[in-house]
Amino acid sequence: MDTLAVVLxxxxxxxxxxxxxxxxxxxxAVVEIAWSGISTGTERLLWSGRMPPFPGLGYPLVPGxxxxxxxxxxxxxxxxxxxxxxxxxxxxxxxxxRGLFGGAASHLVVPAARLVPVxxxxxxQACLLALAATAQHALGPIxxxxxxxxxxxxxxxxxxxxxxxxxxxEPTVWETDPTRIAGAHGxxxxxxxxxxxxxxxxxxxxxxxxxxxxRLIARLAPGGEIVLAGFYEAPLAFAxxxxxxxxxxxxxAAEWRPDDxxxxxxxxxxxxxxxxxxxTHQAPAVEAQAAYRTAFTDPxxxxxxxxxxxxx
Length: 312
Prior knowledge:
Blueprint: E1 2-10, E2 13-20, E3 28-38, H1 42-48, E4 61-62, E5 67-73, E6 85-88, E7 98-99, E8 107-111, E9 116-117, H2 129-139, E10 149-151, H3 155-166, E11 172-174, H4 178-181, E12 189-190, E13 200-205, H5 213-217, E14 220-228, H6 240-246, E15 249-252, H7 258-269, E16 281-284, H8 288-297, E17 304-307
Parallel strand pairs: 4-7, 10-11, 10-13, 11-12, 13-14, 14-15, 16-17
Antiparallel strand pairs: 1-2, 3-5, 3-8, 3-17, 5-6, 6-9
């Protein structure tokens, strides 16, 4: 069996190629992909060649960890059946072509245990579940009445703000791009210079800006915490005296865990966590090259989704 896949042959050179799939083993499922999202964090770094050293990194590779499709075949004991809708957090089934993260393809062979059943009514929005799980993981314990700061108003920042509000807290969001400030969001979205506060107990940065720590530390309350939830291509550094004076804490939010994905999926399925307004662009998979450039260069593009349902 083969698959049509997005292949990053080298930095800034992308192709749509036919690849042989690794044969399915007794614990594997075969999934026909309907949609896959393009990450403007890790995938942008892979595309540009600026990705820091990472396990499995090398070219050629198949990117993507935000895929949704239907089961073609699955082990009987998995509880999955042909036609079931599932979220696929990536795959490694392309032989000598690396799968980092391996979800941008028309068909995938994946261990059935990694698949997450989803409500088919979510459609392409189910691609957002990985980012929702990332936001859930970064959120950590938070209580009603807290007033945290979120830095960055892309899809991850918006999901984090929505989850923060679900917890009863009142987020403020910083954003420097006017196109991402505009609109009614249910919480204030400000340019940093328009925010006078310097008493944030928690600041969560999802911007990926490695040069911004000093600015954030200056806005912390004593004993406050900065959560690093973006992906940073450059080393992070900060001036020690201001952090010392505030007894600042810095926490790194790593990759989401299965319970984060389960929680985010349940909230989205129940309609409590809205995924509306986050997918701003869709393109047929055959137009992948142009779609990736749009995703990485157009600030009005929050999330680009490839549609694999019609293939040449």
